[in-house]
Write a structure and sequence with these properties.
Elements: H1 10-20, E1 25-28, H2 35-47, E2 68-71, H3 75-91, E3 96-99, H4 106-114, E4 118-121, H5 123-131, E5 142-146, H6 148-153, H7 157-165, E6 172-177, H8 184-191, E7 196-199, E8 210-216, H9 220-231, E9 237-240, H10 244-256, E10 261-264, H11 270-282, E11 287-290, E12 305-308, H12 315-322, E13 332-338, H13 343-353, E14 360-361, H14 367-373, H15 388-393
Parallel strand pairs: 1-6, 1-7, 2-4, 2-5, 3-4, 5-6, 8-13, 8-14, 9-11, 9-12, 10-11, 12-13
Helix pairs in contact: 1-2, 2-3, 5-7, 9-14, 12-13
């Protein structure tokens, strides 16, 4: 597989000798540090018999009994992991599928019955299929938990604990994350055997290549104009809002103003989310407006600018949002727009995140704002925007609408945030909760 990688990233160099040898590993590296490939390589190599076997591995994959399990907190991240693992697995004849909620389980059950070597799953749907008897974890020899701290933040640890307990105790277990806090330590003590800890970055440090800018704006009207200027550049940029409604409204306002933008948040249909993310990744649209759903697990190269349209409520969210730029050694700018009533709260966030950027009073005509926006792109008539036709054909579900089963939903169902996988792509239009 050719990905243009000339040399391994530090997290890969640090962990691969141990993971290929079958050791339990706890790895921490900053966002964009190459953690996915760091665990994808040993999973594929060990299952394919490319390295000397350490521990018991099933000789073949049986129906409903995968030999490796990779857990992710969101559907987006599951899809990104699949995009890394599947090409490697295909070369050596291994089968991979994704399991996540928010879509029909029929395709997922069919794949399991045919037999898959590696399952990439979110906890909620995986537990559902386990309870229905469609998947058993008796043969899992390698388990990976990606973004372990995010699992804890989202309240998934009870489900993750039950899943790990269903895998053989003698199997290899790996945990990778940007930070190793919250309830992760409990999982480590219970499920990892003499783990080797590899930390290639300070736990709370922002990405060094980022340049942080704090822009003080006078009022909402001035803020709207500044957003239009920042969004109007020719490079790829990601704008974060606090709520789903704000993300939808801003994306459509920008598109109406001649700056095509896609939205990403939990109230979109499955197909709409896939189309929007694909348009952004492929470069058809250079602006994405998102909630914190895109703060982690969305790996898009060459995002030159991240804009905190609404300052995040806490410092970890700031760092994870900001980490969508300056990835894999590239530079990037991070802008936070701060209204007068938000200044005190953001000062606390900035201190916790160790951001020392000096706040700058800004108006739409300031030269430093135009420099941040970069080369202006040509305006596009709204009806000619790449996503316009698709949006008209697939309206979003109303907030709160869901096709999930009725009754109170357990908290783990909120892990349903899909990016379609190769072997688990749903047919037709699906609605999603959250």
């Amino acid at each position: 597989m050719q990905q243009g990688i000339a040399s391994p990233f530090p997290i890969q160099s640090a962990t691969l000798p141990d993971t290929l040898a079958g050791r339990d590993v706890l790895g921490r590296g900053r966002t964009g540090s190459g953690k996915t490939l760091a665990f994808a390589l040993p999973v594929v190599a060990r299952l394919a018999g490319l390295v000397p076997s350490a521990g018991k591995l099933a000789d073949r994959t049986r129906a409903g009994r995968p030999r490796a399990l990779i857990l992710a907190p969101t559907r987006e991240l599951a899809g990104q992991i699949l995009a890394t693992v599947e090409p490697l697995a295909r070369v050596v004849g291994l089968r991979v599928t994704t399991i996540y909620g928010g879509v029909s389980q029929h395709r997922q059950v069919q794949e399991l019955r045919r037999g898959v070597d590696i399952v990439v799953a979110t906890p909620g749907r995986l537990e559902d299929l386990m309870a229905q008897g469609h998947v058993h974890l008796d043969d899992v020899a390698i388990t990976v938990l990606d973004e372990a701290d995010h699992m804890a933040d989202l309240g998934f640890l009870p489900g993750v604990t039950r899943i790990l307990a269903a895998t053989p105790a003698e199997g290899q277990r790996m945990m990778f994350s940007a930070t190793l806090d919250a309830g992760v330590d409990k999982l480590v003590r219970r499920f990892l055997s003499r783990p080797l800890v590899h930390s290639v970055d300070p736990e709370e440090s922002p990405v060094a290549a980022m340049t942080h800018h704090v822009l003080l704006v006078e009022d909402a009207a001035q803020k709207r104009e500044i957003i239009r200027i920042l969004a109007g550049g020719s490079a790829r940029r990601l704008l974060f809002t606090r709520t789903k409604h704000q993300a939808r409204k801003l994306a459509r306002e920008l598109t109406a103003d001649g700056v095509p933008a896609v939205e990403l948040h939990g109230n979109l249909s499955q197909n709409a989310r896939e189309r929007g993310l694909k348009a952004f990744v492929d470069g058809e649209v250079r602006v994405m407006v998102a909630t914190d759903i895109a703060a982690r697990g969305i790996h898009v190269d060459e995002v030159d600018l991240v804009v905190h349209v609404d300052p995040p409520a806490e410092h970890k969210a700031y760092l994870h949002r900001s980490g969508r730029t300056a990835r894999a050694g590239h530079e990037g700018d991070v802008v936070t727009l701060v209204l007068p009533e938000q200044r005190r709260d953001f000062q606390a966030v900035a201190r916790a995140a160790k951001i020392t950027a000096r706040p700058t009073a800004t108006t739409p005509s300031d030269g430093h704002l135009l420099a941040l926006a970069g080369v202006r792109a040509e305006l596009v008539a709204p009806e000619k925007a790449p996503q316009a036709a698709a949006r008209r054909g697939a309206p979003d579900p109303a907030p709160g609408r869901s096709s999930q089963r009725r009754g109170p939903a357990p908290r783990h169902q909120s892990d349903s945030r899909p990016v379609a996988g190769r072997t688990a792509r749903p047919r037709g239009r699906q609605r999603t909760a959250a």
